[in-house]
């Protein structure tokens, strides 16, 4: 029996693809695990394994006349639901976007492995690790330069005006940590605790003052 026949009979090519999926998905998953993320080692390995297997089956089930991308295309749709589950909204801030993007990318790596693009998948894994680890360190340095301050803005007792304040602050790229509203006579004071670079906070304050002459802005740092 020739080696090619043995490979075809035992599906060693599929087994090799699954092993590569475990290694590449595990490399990214280990980085996530070390950072204490919910989508850690096992999750990323399983995602990469599943995407690889679905893509391999998609190609072989299609045969010579079918569409080899039909099953694999559903990986892109299905992984979106899993990624959405990692995104959390809390006190005006959004957390989990990086984890969701990582899940999406690990699935893409699995699809690449399933099509036989092993080197491309390995290259994408190395780039992903560089972005998560290398650029993450730079991001931490930038975050340490952030400052926390508290804004108190007096506005008429209008629900839309209070929500407009939060939207203006978010648009300036400043993180909102806490929001509290206090009724004072014929107006409402919105207290917002924000965190971010001083330059962006200055832009947020300027935008608040420009948006309406009715605002009275007090800053505590």
Classify the secondary structure makeup into a structural class. Answer: alpha+beta
Please give the alpha-carbon distance between the first and last residues: 78 Å
Radius of gyration: 25 Å
Give the low-confidence spans.
none
Secondary structure: number of strands: 6
Task: Report helical residue fraction.
Answer: 55-70%
Going across the biggest sheet, name each strand in turn.
4-5-3-6
What sort of overall outline do the alpha carbons produce when their principal axes are compared? elongated
The major sheet is characterized as: 4 strands, antiparallel
Query: What integer is the average pLDDT?
Result: 77
Oligomer: single chain
**Total helical segments:** 8
Number of individual domains: 2
Q: What string gives the helices and strands in order?
A: HHHHEEHHEHEEHE
Strand content: 15-25%
Structural summary, described in words:
With 221 residues, the chain is α+β, with helices and mostly antiparallel strands. It has two domains: 3-143, no CATH class; 147-220, Alpha-Beta Plaits. 63% of the residues lie in helices and 18% in strands. The protein has eight helices and six strands, in the order H-H-H-H-E-E-H-H-E-H-E-E-H-E. It has helices spanning 3-10, 12-34, 41-62, 70-84, 97-114, 118-144, 159-171, 198-211; strands at 88-90, 93-95, 147-155, 175-184, 187-196, 216-220. A four-stranded antiparallel beta sheet has the order 4-5-3-6. Helix 5 (97-114) runs antiparallel to helix 6. It starts with a helix and ends with a strand.
């Amino acid at each position: 029996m020739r080696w090619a026949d043995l490979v075809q009979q035992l599906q060693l090519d599929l087994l090799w693809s699954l092993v590569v999926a475990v290694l590449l998905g595990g490399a990214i998953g280990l980085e996530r695990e070390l950072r204490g993320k919910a989508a850690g080692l096992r999750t990323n390995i399983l995602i990469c394994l599943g995407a690889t297997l679905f893509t391999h089956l998609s190609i072989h089930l299609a045969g010579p006349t079918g569409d080899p991308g039909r099953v694999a295309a559903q990986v892109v749709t299905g992984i979106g639901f899993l990624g959405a589950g990692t995104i959390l909204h809390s006190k005006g801030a959004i957390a989990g976007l990086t984890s969701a993007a990582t899940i999406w990318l690990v699935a893409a790596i699995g699809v690449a492995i399933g099509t036989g693009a092993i080197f491309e998948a390995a290259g994408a894994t190395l780039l992903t690790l560089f972005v998560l680890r290398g650029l993450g360190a730079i991001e931490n340095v930038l975050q340490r330069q952030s400052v926390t301050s508290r804004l108190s803005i007096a506005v008429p007792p209008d629900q839309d005006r209070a929500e407009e304040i939060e939207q203006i602050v978010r648009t300036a790229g400043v993180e909102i940590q806490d929001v509290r509203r206090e009724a004072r006579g014929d107006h409402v004071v919105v207290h917002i605790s924000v965190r971010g670079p001083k330059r962006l906070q200055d832009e947020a304050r300027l935008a608040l003052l420009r948006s309406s002459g009715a605002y009275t802005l007090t800053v505590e740092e």
